Amino acid sequence: MTTLRHGRPQRQADLHWQQRHGKAVELWLIVVDASASTRRHGALSHAKGLLASVFDDAYRQRARLALLTASGATPQWQRQGLKASAALQSWLVQLGAGGGTPLLQAVQQARQWLRRRQLSHPDEVQRCLVMTDGRLKHWQAQEALPCQTCVVDIERGAIRLRRAQLLADQLGGEYRHIDELFEQP
């Protein structure tokens, strides 16, 4: 723009370069517990509603997304650091719950992946969102994740174990219950 204010450039000295200082690229890693227990009381349905909103926000903010689902025997990567796109909505519609809860394995994979990613993308701002009902058969202490973390508890029903709160504490993250996120002001 500065070059154009001085008239049409005739030689190289007439060109004025201005370095753009863009906002740092953000990466949002989302770990979704899609085990059989999340079918109870519509927990996964509510989580899918929240995920749709998160995907829209990521698209508007031009964030990159990594998506890891924890269901069945082992966690599965759905996406690793790609730009958010409308294709995520069709994946979300097809997301179902079933099988075991390899959530702790998923968290461990996420931690390792984030550390490798930090080495190759040191200027990237990383955030992690873990959505779980916390209903695990076996529990072991967890090490904190290397980025800002939020654990959203999707456990619903009369009896709540509140293990997602424990997970948030161990990961060094913020704890929120999904019902708080949908409350009307």
Short description:
With 185 residues, the protein is α/β, with parallel strands linked by helices. It is built from 6 helices and 6 strands; from the N terminus they run αβαββααββαβα.
List the helices and strands and how they pair.
Layout: H1 2-5, E1 26-33, H2 43-60, E2 64-70, E3 76-83, H3 87-94, H4 103-120, E4 125-132, E5 148-153, H5 163-171, E6 174-177, H6 178-181
Parallel strand pairs: 1-2, 1-4, 4-5, 5-6
Antiparallel strand pairs: 2-3
Helix pairs in contact: 2-3
Describe the structure.
With 185 residues, this protein is of the alpha/beta class. It has one domain (22-181): von Willebrand factor, type A domain (Rossmann fold, 3-Layer(aba) Sandwich). It is built from six helices and six strands. The chain has helices at residues 2-5, 43-60, 87-94, 103-120, 163-171, 178-181, and strands spanning 26-33, 64-70, 76-83, 125-132, 148-153, 174-177. It has a six-stranded mixed sheet with strand order 3-2-1-4-5-6, with helices on both faces. Helix 2 links the parallel strand 1 and strand 2 (64-70). The radius of gyration is 21 Å and the shape is elongated. The model has no long low-confidence stretch (mean pLDDT 86).
